[in-house]
Amino acid sequence: MLSMEQVAGQWKAKKLLQHALRSGKVSHAYLFHGPAGTGRKQMALAFAKALFCTSGGDDACGHCLECRKFEHGNQPDLIQLAPSGQSIKIEQIRELQQEFVYRGNNGGRKVYIIERAETMTVQAANSLLKFLEEPAAEVTAILITDNGQAVLPTIRSRTQPVPFLPVSPDSLLEALLAEEAPPLLARTAVQLSSGLDGAREILQQNQFAEIRNVMIQLGKESITRFTAAMITAQQKLFKNGLGDNPQLLLSLLVLWFKDMIQYQAGRQDRMVYIDQLDWISKHAFDRSYAGWVTCIEYTFEAGKRIRANVPAQLAFEQLLVNLQEG
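== DNA polymerase III subunit delta ==
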C-alpha cells in the first residue's frame, strides 16, 4: 500500500490533503473528481491510511500499528462501497449508516470510500445527504467520481472537492519506461489514459499487443483495401474476442489517423505508431489534412452509435464504408 507521497503525480491533490493532515482540519467529506486512471482510488486509500496513522504527520508513516493493520487489510473501520450493478442503491447507503451506528460506540477514526459516486440513485443520494448533514466526529467520507458535475449539487456542496488532473503523455511514458514497459506498447497506452494507473491497466490487458497490431492492419486496409478491411474486422476482431472492448479499438484507430496528420505536419516525434513510419510516410498524403480529420470524425460517430446500443460489428462495418467513401 503506497503512501500519498508515493502516488504518481497529482501534486495539487497531495498538497490539499497533506495540509488538512498537518493543520488538523480534516473535512468530514471529500469529493475526488477527475478522469479514471489518474490515481483517485489509490490516493483515497493512501489518505485513509494517513488518517488512521498515529504518527501525527502529513502522511502515513507505514510503521505504526494502525498502518500495519491497514496494509494487511485488517482495518475494520474502513468501509468501501461500489455500485451494485449499474448504480449505488439506497439499501447500500442504509447498510453503511447502520454499520457506523453499530461501530459508533468504539470511538476512534472511521473512513468510508464510495466509488463511482455519480451512480447513486436519487434515493441513495438523499439518504447519504442526511449522513453528511450530521457528520459524526472522526468520520470521513471520500467520494470518487469521473464527473463531479454528475453528483447531486446538494452532495457536492457538502464535500471538499479534490481535483485529479490528467498527466501529460510524456510524463507517463517516462514513468512506464522506467518500469521497463515495452516501449511501443507504452507509447500507445499513454495516449489512451489520463494517468499512470490507467496506462498500467491497459498494458496489463490480455492481448493488448495483438489488438494494437490488428488495428494497425485495419488502419492500413481501411483506406486502401476495403474488402480486406471488412474481412479483418469480421475474422480478427469479432470472431476471436478481440472486439470485446470496441471503444478501445476505435481509440486506437483515431490515433492511427492522427499519426497521418502528425506526419503531414512534420511532427514525426509525436507519432504513436512510430514503428509504422515507413508505411505512413508513403500514405500520409493520400488524403488531405481535412480528409484525415473526417476519418477521425467518422470514428467518433461509430463510438456514439455503439454507446447508443448499435451492435459493435455493425457500427464497425458502417465505419469502414464511410472511411472508404471518404
